[in-house]
Amino acid sequence: MFHGKVRAVAFDADDTLWVNEPFFDRAKAEIAEMMSAYIPAEEFTRILEKTQSRNVAVFGYGVKCFVISMIEAANIAAPDKIKSSEIEHIIAVGRAMLTAPVEPIAGVEEVLRTLGSDYELLMITKGDVAEQQRKISLSGMSVYFDHIEILAEKDEAAYERILHKHSIRHDEFLMVGNSVKSDILPVVGIGGRAVHIPFHTTWVHEVVCEDDLCGREYVEISKAGELLPLLTR
């Protein structure tokens, strides 16, 4: 489908190259269970999601913002009741997330090795720089990429800057990722191409409504290996 049309292929990192969101899901469930002594777990989760979405604009993406948001949500849910030991537990959960091993998604490295000989490869991820650099280092995947970009946000302006920086034409650029909001819509919006690989769980902040997809053309596949027939020359 993309033969002869694409020069540079970019990959998202979290939940595209390696597992990420399940760590957050497990942490949410654990703290929601702890907070169920004060408030139903479902209600705490709603408070946390609202708090985290608000805090991202100030603290950015990543575990540190998540931990701050869990502490704030716990205080909202149980004002003057939350114990210091429970705050310490939230911090311990965050520390465990920041030191967890990196779990590559099956089949991704084979795809990167195959495409590397014919395409300029980029990794484009967003989040806390130190957190992302740690995962990049532990994954061992940096060897496959010509360029690695860690962004505060993935929007049209950010992608425009990257294409200009690396002298890549819009119609020669393909973005591959799991987030329609961050990896697909902004790229299609500036005239690039995009391939969506859904992950089995998605952060609520990254969910888009059906109306946002109207008129947006992109390809959806179920796993990274299905990218090769679209690109292999």
CATH architectural label of the largest domain: 3-Layer(aba) Sandwich
User: What percent of residues adopt helix (DSSP H or I)?
Assistant: 40-55%
Number of helices: 9
- How many distinct beta strands? 6
Mean pLDDT: 93
Strand order in space, largest sheet: 3-2-1-4-5-6
Gyration radius, in Å:
19 Å
SSE order, as H and E?
Answer: EHHHHHEHEHEHEEH
User: What's the CATH topology label of the largest domain?
Assistant: Rossmann fold
Q: How would you sum up the major sheet?
A: 6 strands, parallel
- Percent strand: 5-15%
Shape from CA axes?
A: elongated
Q: Structural class, please?
A: alpha/beta
User: Can you tell me the CATH class of the largest domain?
Assistant: Alpha Beta
Tell me the span between the first and last alpha carbons: 11 Å
Description:
By secondary structure, this protein is α/β, with parallel strands linked by helices. The protein has two domains: 8-17 and 105-231, HAD superfamily/HAD-like (Rossmann fold), CATH 3.40.50; 21-99, DNA polymerase, domain 1 (Orthogonal Bundle). It is built from nine helices and six strands. Strands 3-2-1-4-5-6 form a six-stranded parallel beta sheet, sandwiched between helices. Strand 4 (173-177), helix 8 (180-189) and strand 5 form a beta-alpha-beta unit. Helix 1 (21-35) packs parallel to helix 3, helix 2 crosses helix 3 and helix 3 runs antiparallel to helix 4 (84-98). The longest helix is centred in the first third of the chain and has 19 residues, at 41-59. The protein is elongated and about 60 Å long. The N and C termini lie close together (11 Å). The model has no long low-confidence stretch (mean pLDDT 93). GO terms for molecular function: hydrolase activity.
